[in-house]
Design goal:
By secondary structure, the chain is mainly α. It has helices at 3-17, 22-41, 51-63, 68-87, 114-122, 130-146, 150-154, 191-205, 226-239, 248-263, 266-273, 278-281, 283-299, and strands at residues 167-169, 174-178, 184-188. It is built from 13 helices and three strands; from the N terminus they run H-H-H-H-H-H-H-E-E-E-H-H-H-H-H-H.
Length: 306
C-alpha cells in the first residue's frame, strides 16, 4: 500500500474505531500531510522514515518560526500514526518516540505596576452595596497584601477551629493558611488589610449568615468559590479604571514582585509565597530585572535614544 493509502487507513481508524471528533481527525490529516511532504522531499517512504529524519524536520520547523507548542502537537500526531503502523506490523520501531519539541519559553507572570495595584486596593465604589463593597475590598487587600493563592483565600474561616483550613488572627496580624501539598504557613497581614477585614467582619456580623464558618461568603451564606472571586475581581478592576482585567494570581505575582523590588530578599519572598523550591521563586528576579531595565532606559543618559 502506498503512503496515501496508509494515511487514509489510519484516519479511518481514528475516525471509526477511536471515535475522535471530526475536527481532531481534520487536524491529524493536516499533520500527516506535512509528514508526507517531508518524506517526499527526503525521497523516503513513510514506513522507512528514521529518527534522524524526524529530528531534521523538527529543526526545520523550529527554524521556520513554528512555536514549540505547535511542533509538539504535530509530533503527537506523527507519534500516534507510527504507533498504529507498529501495531499493524508495518514498522519495526517508532521514529518519533524519543523526539521532543523545543522547549516553550516560560512566560513571565503578569504583575501590576505599583501604581495600578494601589489604585485597585484603594478603589471604593460609593454606590455599591456596603456589604458587597466591604467583602470585595477585603478580598483585594488579602490577595495583594499577603500574596495568597485564591484557593488559600477561599479556605479561610471567620474564626480559628480544629476544622478550619485557615483563618486570620487579627490581634497578631497573621494569616494562617493551608497551601499546596497540605502545607501550612503563616504570613503577616498588613495594616490596610486588617482594617479592610475588620470592616468586612462588621458588615458580615449584621447579616443573616453571620454564623457561617467561611470568612468570605455570598448572599446565600455559602463559601465563595474561586470562580466567584475571579469574577468579582475582574469586575472590580475594570470599575477601578485599570486597563487590564485583574485575576487573583496576578495580585499574588504583584505582591511577590513588589516585595522583591523593595527588599531584594528572595528567600523571604519564597517563604511568604510558600514555594517549596526557590527555583520557583526566581522567576520574580526576572520581573525585578525588567523593572530595573525600564528605569535604566528611562533615566540613564547613555540609554536614551535621540
Amino acid at each position: 500500500m502506498d503512503d496515501a493509502g496508509l494515511v487514509e487507513r489510519y484516519l479511518e481508524h481514528v475516525r471509526v474505531e477511536k471515535r475522535l471528533a471530526a475536527r481532531t481527525v481534520e487536524l491529524y490529516a493536516l499533520d500527516l500531510q506535512k509528514l508526507r511532504e517531508n518524506a517526499e522531499k527526503a525521497d523516503v517512504a513513510l514506513a522507512q522514515v528514521q529518527n534522524a529524519h524526524v529530528r531534521r524536520w523538527v529543526a526545520q520547523m523550529h527554524g521556520g518560526g513554528r512555536s514549540g507548542r505547535g511542533i509538539a502537537l504535530i509530533l503527537s500526531g506523527w507519534r500516534g500514526f507510527y504507533a498504529w503502523l507498529g501495531r499493524e506490523g508495518l514498522v519495526a520501531s517508532n521514529p518519533v518516540q524519543d523526539v521532543r519539541a523545543p522547549k516553550v519559553a516560560k512566560p513571565l507572570p503578569k504583575a501590576l505596576s505599583v501604581d495600578d495595584a494601589v489604585q485597585l486596593a484603594e478603589f471604593s465604589a460609593e454606590d455599591a452595596d456596603p456589604w458587597l463593597e466591604a467583602r470585595d475590598a477585603a478580598i483585594v487587600e488579602l490577595l495583594y497584601g499577603c500574596g495568597l493563592r485564591v484557593g488559600e483565600l477561599v479556605g479561610l474561616d471567620a474564626r480559628a477551629s480544629g476544622a478550619a483550613k485557615g483563618w486570620v488572627d487579627l490581634d497578631a496580624g497573621e494569616a494562617h493558611v493551608l497551601g499546596k501539598g497540605s502545607k501550612r504557613r503563616t504570613v503577616p497581614v498588613g495594616t490596610k488589610a486588617l482594617e479592610a477585614l475588620r470592616a468586612w467582619l462588621a458588615q458580615r456580623a449584621g447579616g443573616r449568615h453571620a454564623g457561617e464558618a467561611a470568612l468570605f461568603i455570598g448572599r446565600n451564606g455559602t463559601r465563595l468559590s474561586a470562580q466567584a472571586i475571579w469574577a468579582r475581581l475582574k469586575r472590580r478592576s475594570l470599575h477601578a479604571g485599570l486597563a487590564t482585567p485583574v485575576h487573583p494570581h496576578m495580585l499574588r505575582h504583584s505582591f511577590a514582585s513588589h516585595v522583591l523590588q523593595s527588599s531584594g530578599d528572595l528567600r523571604a519572598v519564597q517563604e511568604l509565597l510558600g514555594h517549596a523550591n526557590i527555583g520557583t521563586t526566581q522567576v520574580y528576579t526576572r520581573l525585578d530585572y525588567q523593572h530595573l531595565a525600564k528605569a535604566y532606559d528611562a533615566a540613564h543618559p547613555r540609554a536614551k535614544r535621540k
